Structures are given as C-alpha cells and as structure tokens.
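User: Hey, my collaborator sent me this sequence without any context and asked if I could get a structure. I don't really work with proteins. Can you help?
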Amino acid sequence: MGTRGDEARPAHSRRSVLAAATGVVGLAGSASLLAGRDRIRVLAAASLAAALEDRIGPAFEAATDVRVDGEYLGTNAILRLIERGDTLPDVVIGADVSLVRDRLVPEHARVGLEFATNEVGIAYDPETEFGSRLAADEPWHEVLTAADAGAIGIADPDQNPLGYRAVHLFELAEREHDRPGFREAMLERAAVDGQEGQLLGGLEAGNRACAISYRNMAVDRDLPFYALPATYNFADPAFEDTYASASYTTADGQTVTGSLVSYVATAPDRATEHEDGGRFAAFLGERPSLLEDAGLAVPESLPRTSGDSPGVAQP
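Assistant: No problem. I've predicted the 3D structure and written it out in structure-token form, which is a compact way to encode the shape of the chain:
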C-alpha cells in the first residue's frame, strides 16, 4: 500500500475538523504547554496495538513530550469497562464508529474523531495446504469449507468488532455464493480467540491455516493476506447497505449489524488528562502517513467528527 504525506491533503479542511473535535488545531510548539502532564492512558482496539506502540505513540511523544501508555482490548470489552465505571482512560479508540457513538456519546464523551479505515480478509500460512490454495487464488469459501475443525481462527464476536464481522462475512458470503448453511458451518468449525491481539499467533506457531483478519494485522506480522471482494470486505462505502443486511446478537443481547470498518478516537469528558487526550486524537488525524505505513487506509473523507456537540458535523 502506498503512503501519502500530509501535504497531499487539503490542510485547511483537515485542521478545521480537528479543531471542532478537540478544541486545538495543531501540535507544533505545544510541548511547552504540557509541563507537569507528561503521560496519557489510551485504551484502544487490539488491532491497533502495533501501530500505536511502534509508530504513533513514539511520534506523539517526540512531538509533545507526552508519553502514551496503551492497553489493547476488543472494542466491546472496552465499552463495557467504561460503562460499568471500572476504568476511565484519557483516550478511547474503537473499531466501530456506531458502537462507540451509541454507547459513549454523549454520556461519556461529546465527540469522536474518525481517522482511519481497514478491511477484512484472510491472513494465512502459505506453508499449509489451505494456505497454498489461497495463494493460488482459489475461491476462499471453497477452501474454508474443506478446512478441518480449528484450522480457521476468528476473534470473539462477543468481545470485538473483528469477531462479529467474521460472522457478518460468513452470512454475506452464504448469500452471494448460494451456499446454504455456510455461516453456521464456519462458526462450528472455527476456533475462537478471546484476545484479538493473539489471533494470528496460531498461524505463526503452525497451529492454524488461516484467520479472518484485518489487513493491517497481517501487515504487522508479515503474513500473506487474501483480499476479499468489496461486497463483504467492509471497506467500500458503496456497499454499506449490503453490509448492514448482516447481523449478530452478542451474548449480552446486543444486536450489531454490518458496517464499514472505521476507527474513532475520543477523549472522555471526565478523563484526568482530557486536554492531552484531545491532542492525541488530533494527532491521529494529522499524521495519515503513519497510519498508512501501518497497513491502515486513510481516504480523503477522513478525518471527520462524529458526535452530537453543537456545530459538529454528523458522519
């Protein structure tokens, strides 16, 4: 995936969006304003762990003298912790804009900033029989149908969006390829990982042939990635209605429908370091090249704000 520098984007529109979302425009010269507040806690979707730890966090610290302490969980798990009052980080980053908006805005945060997108596909081990078939570009749904139990990994659909997007994927593929029972057959056959960040570890250890993954996660681990059609990769705005036709009900009774993969960052209103959290959210919108280098996508429509604050545009 190619990268684009910040100069390729209309700076005035990007800066105005960031100002609306965070109350600040840029980070240049801000380090002198941060004396005595040198650390923020970020609770983020596990699929962003490598991007934040290896690229974005160090770059933010270099620009502001503010250290980023990251913790990474499934988005659903993060939201449950905040709703129960078990934790209150300075920044929350989720992988499903609707989920974050519906459960955090406006009770816990006024506005969020959408800053990057991703796509769902299949990371695979090319040394396995099924991996070699995927590498040969055989139809993925035929390959996975022949897989042994436990050979396919998916994230926990009750804990994070990647998990329930795997369920949505199987449902949409069942319809598109006229394979009755495909969704349930895949769910019976798949191995569910409770920790999204460990999903691809089974491939590297030789215990699994493939896993339903985001593209950036495969990039992080230098694994081959089988790209899926736009009709069910959750990356193309033209197919939003198609994505929304699939659904999954979590163990706690919440029904989630298919949606574009889009990451959103917000600084909870009562966070200890709310101002610095807002600066970090702004930083995510200001540095698209860092995100793209990590295997994420930043279309021209981003960054954009999401929330119900006066004067903030709705997505």
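In plain terms: Residues 1-37, 308-315 have pLDDT under 50 and may be disordered. You can pass these tokens on to your collaborator as they are.
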